[in-house]
Every structure is written in structure tokens, then in C-alpha cells.
Amino acid sequence: MDAHLLQAFVTIIDQESFSEAAEQLHLTQPAISKRLSALENLTGNRLIDRSNRKIRLTDAGARLLPHARRIIDEVHNARLALSDRRDSVSGRLSVIASHHIGLHHLPAWLRRLNREFPEVSLELKFMDSESALDMMEKRTAELAFVTLSESMGPSFAVQARWEDEMAFVVSPEHPLATLAAPTLADLSHYDALLPEAGTATYRTVSRLFLDQGLALQLQMPTNYLETIKVMAGVGLGWSVLPVRMMDSTLIRLPVNYRVSRLLGAIGLKDRTLSPQAKALLTIASELK
After folding, report:
1. Half-sphere CA count of 113, side-chain side, radius 13 A
2. pTM of the prediction?
3. What is the pLDDT of residue 199?
4. Helices 3-15 and 29-43: crossing angle, nearest 10°?
5. Contact between residue 259 and residue 143 where contact means Cβ atoms under 8 Å apart
6. What are the two backbone dihedrals, phi and then psi, of residue 191, each rounded to the nearest 5 degrees?
7. What is the Cα–Cα distance from 5 to 1, expressed in whole angstroms?
8. Residue-wise pLDDT tens digits, 144-171
9. Burial of 225 per CB tally in 10 Å (0-12, 13-18, 19+)
10. Whole-angstrom Cα distance, residue 269 to residue 279?
11. Whole-angstrom Cα distance, residue 93 to residue 118?
12. What gap in Å lies between CA 276 and CA 91, rounded to an integer?
């Protein structure tokens, strides 16, 4: 089965659009439609329902999709095996990074990568960790640097991990700053500035409060930790932020609970990493 035909089929599904799939594969829209038609003729099945504006898999398409992904991954692995040049690290490297990692870790890694491997061409995207997992499933990047979560699916392989210490914080002018030993019950009376429900940080904090039968008073949830830091720094509420983000606008509350999260790099379990991805992983592991 022609891998180019399968790639067209998978990209149409992932992009949910013939035109966007064509753009990603550098094809015209008639060309990508022709590839899909050729695959449908080859399999003897209609794979995509074209009866309305939304792209939908037929039953046959749904059965084919996981096999198509595996075949595409194996073609990728075969190409890497045949072009493996251990003395050369070059070529395109697509990476996704969470906003926090992009601001506080990635610059040092990329500075060294560019210095030691100048022939690597980087393609970089920033997004929240949950969106990054979805994009990795669609093979839009080779590596993602994200907050690790127990909800990650079995298709991912954790390539590196490290602990990110966090702290309960408020503005020095916040009423909680005057307490010598604030408790979770004390915090529950004030607005909480946290990432959205479903994120690893929110689940960690929420679990602490649930265990004590306390409610969180959520105020303007956002996944951008820099935004949360500014909001906490002007006194709009308390938050839980990485220790490395703290500055003079915040003080650490001596709450009697240790909070941390796991950051890490993930790839796809059945997809071999390129030499340039391995080089970036080595740098990240040494500088984290």
C-alpha cells in the first residue's frame, strides 16, 4: 500500500480539511483529493464521508486509520535507519514546547544546540501541554516538552523527565501574607489563580483541597503561568507557581504541603527519534 496515499488520508483526517491537508503536504487540493480517491479504489472502500462540510471517517476509514499511522511510522523509521549517519547531526527538527518551558528552559537548550549543531533547522511551536499531546498524536512534531500527566495515552514515550518544585504564593500586600502559618482552610476564603481544570497543576492543587473537604474559589483560570504570576503579584488572589518564577512581586506562603509537578520530553512510542532530536534531548538532560 502506497505510503503517500496513506499520508494524504491521515493528513486530511488530522487537519479536518482537504485544503489544509494539501497545504501541509505541499500539494494542490485536486492532487490530495486524487490521492484519497486512489486509496479508496485500492481498498475498495469509501474512507471519508463527504456528504457534509465536516470531515468524518466512515467505518472502513476508522478501521484503516490506526494501521495507516503504523505504516507511516515504519516508513519513517526505515528512512532513518537507512540514512543514519552517526557523525552528522543535521536536518529539520520539529518541536513543541509548553509556554513555561519555552520561557524558562528552552532558550539555553537552543543556544547550545545552535552552537554545537548549526546544521539543524528548528521548527518550533508553543502551546499548552494538553494541546501538545493532541498535536503529537497527529505527528506534527517529533518532540514535545510539556508537563507530564498520568492521563497521557499509551502511544507516548517519555524520553526525559525532571521535577519542577512549586510554591503557594501571594503578593506581599495580600491578607494571607500576614499569616505566620496559613492553612488550606485559610486559602479557601480567598480567590485562587490557577490553570484551567484538566491541567496537571490544577489537579494537584484541587486534590489537596478535596481531601480536606474545602472549596476552591477560582478566579479567571488561564493556562499562561506568566499571566497568573502578574495577577497574583498585583494582589488578585493566591496561586501555586514554579519556584523559579518567583521574584520581588511575590512571597512564598509557608503552607504545610509540598507541591511539585513533573516536566519532561515526550515522543511517540513507535516512532524512532532522529539524531537531531536525540542531540536536543541530551542537551536538555544536562541543562535541566
Report:
1. 28
2. 0.81
3. 84
4. 120
5. no
6. -65, 140
7. 8
8. 999 998 778 888 999 999 999 999 999 9
9. buried
10. 18
11. 12
12. 7
